[in-house]
Amino acid sequence: MPNLVVHTPAIRGCEVDPPPLPPPDASFDELVAAVDAQIPRDGRELVLAAFSFGALVALRLAATSDCTIRQIVLFDPMVVPLLPLMGFDDDYHRIRPVLEDYATGAERGEADAAALAIDAWLGDGAYASSPPKLKEMFERWGPTNARQARATFAMDFSLATFAGISAPIAAHYGAAGPPIWKSFAAAAAGLSGPNGSIQAIPGANHAMLATHANEIATVLHAAIERAR
Questions:
Q1: Mean pLDDT lowest for which of 20-29, 113-122, 145-154, 169-178?
Q2: Are 79 and 186 in contact (CB under 8 A)?
Q3: Would you say 122 and 177 are in contact if contact means Cβ atoms under 8 Å apart?
Q4: Closest by alpha carbon to 95, among 78, 77, 112?
Q5: How many CB atoms lie within 10 A of CB 63?
Q6: CA 204 to CA 210: how far, in whole Å?
Q7: Which residue of 23, 31, 70, 156 is 20 to 30 Å from 221, comparing CA positions?
Q8: Strand order in the sheet with 69-75
């Protein structure tokens, strides 16, 4: 595409593998500000795309940044704090204790703590059936994920937190993943009211970046075209 520039800002603590730990006292908004600071102010309008926890960061960034954002495209958005704000209370009360227990286990260095989150994201038994190298990766990222969770839960989210969003939100979720991903997508897209949309990616789950790259690329291409 002519005149297309791609920026890939990283969330603090997620820049490299193995991950460096973000500061233990880093607030959620500090994580958002660190991402915003990586976006060049060159006058270009943006299509903002994000995956998983990055979606919550992207939504807060869209509400606070001085960049011009034309489209917001999310993939399996892990937007836990949005669930009660958008009417998904039952989902919230099911998933938050799981993430609290995961964060506590990861902070303690418990090797099997990752099973709590992985089974929640990919389905029951997903962690047990994962190959050893994948389990090692889950465990390696546990402390970083725990700090992100703590920063998120420490923030007092409300609908006003996202009131600055003006771009339409298109949220995509893996149809083969647990049902909560559809709730996450609906909660995120709901922030832009009638301009929001949700769509399933057939056959995908939370591993979609590895398994459905072509489908994701097609979605992004369409979003960029809409923004022109």
A1: 20-29
A2: no
A3: yes
A4: 78
A5: 17
A6: 10
A7: 31
A8: 46-51, 69-75, 169-174, 197-201
Instruction: Name 195's Cβ contacts closer than 8 Å, sequence gap at least 6.
Output: 168, 169
Distance, in Å, from the CA atom of 67 to the CA atom of 200, rounded to the nearest integer, reads 29
The verdict on whether omega for the bond into residue 168 sits within 30 degrees of 0, i.e. cis, is no
Could you tell me the residue ranges of all domains in the chain? 28-227
The two three-digit tokens of residue 85, written as one number: 């704000």
Quote the CA–CA distance of 85 and 187 in Å, as a whole number: 8
Q: Which value, to the nearest 10 degrees, does the dihedral of the CA atoms of residues 151, 145, 188, 203 take?
A: -170
**Is the model's pLDDT at 2 over the cut of 80?**
no
Backbone φ and ψ for 15, nearest 5 degrees, come out as: -75, -35
Residue 183 to residue 200: CA distance in whole angstroms: 12
Q: Which two tokens stand for residue 105?
A: 């286990």
Opening angle at CA 219, ends 179 and 141, nearest 5: 55
Q: Which of 121, 80, 115 is nearest to 204 (CA)?
A: 121
Q: Model-level pTM greater than 0.85?
A: yes
Amino acid at 222: A
79 with 189: CB under 8 angstroms?
Answer: no
CATH architecture for segment(s) 28-227: 3-Layer(aba) Sandwich (3.40)
CA distance 36 to 58: 9
- In 3D, which of 122, 180, 188 has the Cα closest to residue 161? 188
